[in-house]
Amino acid sequence: MSGLRVVIADDHPLFRDGLRTLLADLGAEVVAEVGDGSAAVAAVGTHRPDVVLMDLRMPGLDGIEATSRITRDHPGTTVLVLTMSDDAASLQAALNAGARGYLLKEASKADVGRALEAVMRGEILIGAGAAPRMRTITAGRTATTPFPQLTEREQELLELLARGLDNTAIARRLFLAEKTVRNRVSAIMAKLPAASRAEAIAIARDAGIGRTE
To answer: Most buried one in 5, 171, 176, 187, CB count within 10 A?
Structure first.
């Protein structure tokens, strides 16, 4: 994990202190520490870190909106949520905003290390403490709408993705820029969740989406 550049966003100084020590032990470099969502967004713009460790409940701009802005404006930065919020709604909102991982603050040093490695490989990591909430979200899917967590536009894009269209073809079909398509594919992967484009296609086809042109 040497060379990994991290921003810590949490409004509790003592927790930030402990997390900074933990990250140093893992070989990561903390390039900024902030106490609210607006400062987190600004820090990403200034430092362009690899990862933001993001709390959800902070004064002013909360972690969900900060995550949404960061993943929209700085696609090279990955957000890993580290929070006390263990409810399904918070988990769903974080994934919808573009977070690639979700850990509870009870996570161990080893858990944080594994999560950082996973999200930097492009995987999605839901910590053990939050995993039951993911099952709750999955159980809420209906037969008529396999993936209700997706917006209507995202469902339309997933259909084309599952049919085997590449980003260029999808962009032409939906009259979007290719960069927009790439960002929306990443958002879909986070919401399903899927660790890769191929896995997202497999999940969609298993649900009966995109089997035929």
So the answer is: 187
Instruction: Identify whether residues 27 and 90 lie together within a single domain.
Output: yes
**Which distant-in-sequence residues (6+ apart) come within 8 Å of 140 by Cβ?**
148
Site of tokens 């709604």: 89
* Domain residue limits at 77: 5-137
Amino acid at site 89: A
Question: Using only C-alpha atoms, what is the Rg of the chain?
Answer: 17
Q: Domain check: are 119 and 145 in the same one? A: no
Distance of CA 101 to the CA centre of its chain: 5
The CATH number of the domain holding residue 131 is 3.40.50.2300
Whole-model pTM: value is: 0.65
Rounded to whole angstroms, the Cα distance separating 91 from 128 reads 13
Query: Which residues is 101 bridged to in the sheet?
Result: 80, 125
List, in sequence order, every residue forming a beta bridge with 30; answer none if it has no partner. Answer: 6
